[in-house]
Amino acid sequence: MGGPTGKKYMGWWGHMGGPTQRGVVTYVLSPFEQKPFAGAAHNAVFNTARRVSSQIPYIGAAFGLGYLIYYQSNKTHAYLTSKAGIAAEGGHH
C-alpha cells in the first residue's frame, strides 16, 4: 500500500517529531529597556520633508503646465469676447 500508516504522532506546531534544533541563539530585551517611539517624531518630520522635496520637480512641472493652459485660455477668451475678436472671427451669426 505505501500510504501513511498513522502510527507515528506528528505532534503539534513546532514539535513535528524531527531532530531537535541546535545552535539557535535568541536574545531578549527587557520591556523596561525598550523605547518603541524613540526618534519617531524626528524621523517622521525628516522623512516627510525628504519625500516631499523629491516630488517638487514633478509637482512644479504639472502646476506650471496647468497655469500656462489657464493663462492662455483666459487670454484667448478675453480676446474672442472683445470687439476686435468678434470682428476678426466674422461677427455674431
From TrEMBL:
Membrane topology reported for the UniProt record: Single-pass membrane protein
GO biological process: mitochondrial electron transport, ubiquinol to cytochrome c
Subunit structure: Component of the ubiquinol-cytochrome c oxidoreductase (cytochrome b-c1 complex, complex III, CIII), a multisubunit enzyme composed of 3 respiratory subunits cytochrome b, cytochrome c1 and Rieske protein, 2 core protein subunits, and additional low-molecular weight protein subunits. The complex exists as an obligatory dimer and forms supercomplexes (SCs) in the inner mitochondrial membrane with cytochrome c oxidase (complex IV, CIV).
InterPro entries: Cyt_bc1_su8, Cyt_bc1_su8_sf
CC terms in the record's Gene Ontology section: mitochondrial inner membrane; respiratory chain complex III
Family as reported in the entry's similarity comment: Belongs to the UQCRQ/QCR8 family.
SUPFAM superfamilies, per the entry: Ubiquinone-binding protein QP-C of cytochrome bc1 complex (Ubiquinol-cytochrome c reductase)
Name used for this protein in its record: Cytochrome b-c1 complex subunit 8
Keywords: Electron transport, Membrane, Mitochondrion, Mitochondrion inner membrane, Respiratory chain, Transmembrane, Transmembrane helix, Transport
Compartments, as annotated in UniProt: Mitochondrion inner membrane
Organism of provenance: Thamnidium elegans
Role noted for this protein: Component of the ubiquinol-cytochrome c oxidoreductase, a multisubunit transmembrane complex that is part of the mitochondrial electron transport chain which drives oxidative phosphorylation. The complex plays an important role in the uptake of multiple carbon sources present in different host niches.
